[in-house]
């Protein structure tokens, strides 16, 4: 395994650019491990409608970064008490949606530290039923990223202030409040350390289980990273996007997460469609949207273009029939 030092950058736009650079431009077969800590920010899932996820008045008042990531899932709040980890690996079927594999090294170290952590739900790490980590994945070519958060000593009061928390998501999990369903890892440590020491313990615990080396980013790397930062993660169009006017809106929570579709229909044809949600797809859902545009807004037409598509890559365990029933019924 290769550990990459992010040189203590805390700008989420830069850290997500580092991660993307390592995914797209590192031609190695070995797994890569990356850690980063972000200053206060909201990291939006790839398929989400940003303006519906954030408390924009609060964000503007406190200068909180809003950045869209390439993976699916829901919006998360980061601050200097949250440690993010990324595993970059080969994009094999044994790895896709295999959150157990990529969280296991982290959970093992937490257990060694006396924290009773376990994988729970579709992509969470829990301690005593409370969430300390959420995870998501995305891919590009033959490589993929599986990354997650680790709430170590975050200001949990800011989570519900910064995010527009959706009651249906809370109710579907049978939990009364966001504050009650999350926890900081330091609460469970007999002798808490600061987050930098925690990062070192986690790093050493993971790397000691395999042959490893450390890579330091070069000026050539930074040229590409800065380009990703400038051209994607610092762009309003990427982070917010322009939501077109829609005359049909569908919203439903599935086992794979919430799907929110906005559909513009003119003379019986789909002129535009935008699919939002916190589902954990690896590939860009724009591919699915493009198939629907120009089709008749009826069940058979939608089934005819979606039946042959591997929707697992975009949504997880969702069939074409389930998607069409949702879009049309």
Structure at a glance:
The protein has 329 residues and is of the alpha+beta class. It has 13 helices and 14 strands.
Outline the structure in words.
- A hairpin with a 2-residue loop joins strand 9 and strand 10.
- This protein has 329 residues and is α+β, with helices and mostly antiparallel strands.
- The chain contains 13 helices and 14 strands.
- It has 2 domains: 2-239, Bira Bifunctional Protein, Domain 2 (BirA Bifunctional Protein, domain 2, 2-Layer Sandwich), CATH 3.30.930.10; 248-328, Enolase-like, domain 1 (2-Layer Sandwich).
- The longest helix is centred in the last third of the chain and has 15 residues, at 219-233.
- It has an 8-stranded mixed beta sheet, sandwiched between helices. Strands 4-3-5 form a 3-stranded mixed beta sheet.
Secondary-structure element pattern, one letter each: EHEEHEEEHEEEEHHHHEHHEEEHHHH
What is the end-to-end distance?
48 Å
Mean pLDDT: 90
CA-based shape: globular
Strand runs, count: 14
Strand % is 25-35%
CATH topology of the largest domain: BirA Bifunctional Protein, domain 2
Strand order of the largest sheet: 7-8-9-10-6-2-1-11
* Number of individual domains: 2
Largest sheet properties: 8 strands, mixed
Please identify, by name, the CATH architecture of the largest domain. Answer: 2-Layer Sandwich
The number of helical segments is 13
Structural class: alpha+beta
Q: Report the oligomer.
A: single chain
């Amino acid at each position: 395994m290769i550990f990459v030092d992010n040189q203590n950058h805390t700008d989420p736009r830069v850290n997500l650019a580092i991660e993307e650079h390592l995914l797209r431009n590192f031609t190695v077969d070995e797994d890569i491990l990356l850690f980063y800590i972000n200053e206060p920010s909201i990291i939006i899932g790839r398929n989400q409608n940003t303006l519906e996820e954030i408390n924009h008045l609060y964000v503007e008042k406190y200068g909180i970064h809003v950045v869209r990531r390439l993976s699916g899932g829901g919006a998360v709040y980061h601050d200097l008490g949250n440690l993010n980890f990324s595993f970059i690996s080969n994009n094999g079927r044994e790895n896709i949606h295999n959150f157990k594999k990529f969280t296991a090294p982290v959970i093992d170290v937490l257990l060694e530290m006396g924290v009773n952590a376990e994988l729970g739900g579709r992509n969470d790490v829990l301690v005593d039923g409370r969430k300390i980590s959420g995870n998501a994945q995305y891919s590009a070519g033959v490589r993929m990223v599986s990354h997650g958060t680790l709430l170590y000593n975050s200001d949990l009061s800011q989570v519900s202030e910064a995010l527009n928390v959706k009651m249906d998501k809370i109710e579907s999990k049978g939990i009364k409040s966001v504050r009650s369903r999350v926890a900081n890892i330091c609460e469970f440590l007999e002798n808490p350390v600061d987050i930098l020491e925690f990062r070192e313990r986690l790093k050493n615990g993971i790397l000691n289980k395999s042959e490893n080396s450390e890579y330091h980013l070069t000026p050539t790397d930074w040229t590409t990273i800065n380009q990703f930062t400038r051209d994607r993660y610092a762009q309003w169009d990427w982070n917010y996007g322009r939501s077109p006017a829609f005359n049909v809106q569908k919203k439903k929570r599935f086992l794979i997460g919430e799907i929110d579709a906005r559909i513009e229909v003119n003379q019986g044809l789909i002129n535009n469609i935008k699919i939002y949600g916190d589902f954990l797809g690896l590939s860009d859902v724009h591919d699915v949207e493009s198939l629907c545009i120009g089709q008749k807004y009826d069940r058979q037409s939608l089934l005819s273009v979606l039946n042959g598509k591997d929707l697992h890559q975009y949504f997880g365990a969702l069939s074409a029939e389930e998607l069409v029933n949702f879009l049309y019924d």
